[in-house]
Design a protein that fits this description.
Keywords: Membrane, Transmembrane, Transmembrane helix. This protein is of the alpha+beta class. It contains four helices and four strands, in the order H-H-H-E-E-E-E-H. 35% of the residues lie in helices and 22% in strands. The protein starts with 30 loop residues before the first helix and ends in an 8-residue tail after the last helix.
Length: 168
């Protein structure tokens, strides 16, 4: 049967065929739900305070508990909403300077570190030779651009690769 139903990515999510520049979303968007959590927490607290003075059966300690949980979530969301000033291309440039060898292939991945989820670029890069003789892993802080960590080593895969000069 030729009419099989198959899953397919929408065109706007297909990264393979996308030729336009892609901007990674900024972590400061986390502040929006943080503000919403805070407003709802305040509303729960005010409702609990007004309801306890009237001996209302609909208002109980559950609202106080909800206010505490939502307040904690508001603080976590708001304080982890770092504004990123370094994008992946800036991070690649900083990593290239730090590793100390000409970079051929490289990849960037955003990760978060620490209790407050500070955004960090994880850059993995290989030297320009074929096969690459060196590789490096560099962590670049996405907020201020500082190099958090840098590891450079000989590429163990280059030692096991066949020598290209002996091939026909």
């Amino acid at each position: 049967m030729t009419d099989d139903i198959r899953d397919q990515l929408p065109d706007d999510l297909n990264a393979v065929d996308n030729v336009a520049a892609y901007d990674f979303p900024d972590n400061s968007r986390r502040r929006i739900p943080g503000i919403l959590y805070g407003v709802i927490a305040i509303l729960c607290l005010v409702t609990w305070q007004l309801g306890t003075s009237n001996d209302s059966v609909l208002v109980n300690r559950g609202l106080l508990f909800a206010a505490a949980v939502l307040g904690a979530m508001a603080i976590i969301s708001f304080t982890s909403g770092w504004r990123m000033t370094i994008d992946e291309s800036d991070a690649l440039v900083r990593a290239t300077r730090k590793v100390g060898f000409p970079v051929g292939h490289a990849s960037a991945q955003q990760v978060w570190r620490g209790l407050r989820s500070r955004p960090t670029w994880r850059i993995f890069c290989y030297s320009v030779e074929e096969p690459p003789r060196q590789r490096g892993l560099v962590l670049v802080d996405a907020v201020n651009g500082d190099i958090v960590e840098c590891l450079v080593e000989a590429n163990p895969d280059a030692e096991t690769a066949p020598d290209s000069s002996t091939q026909d």
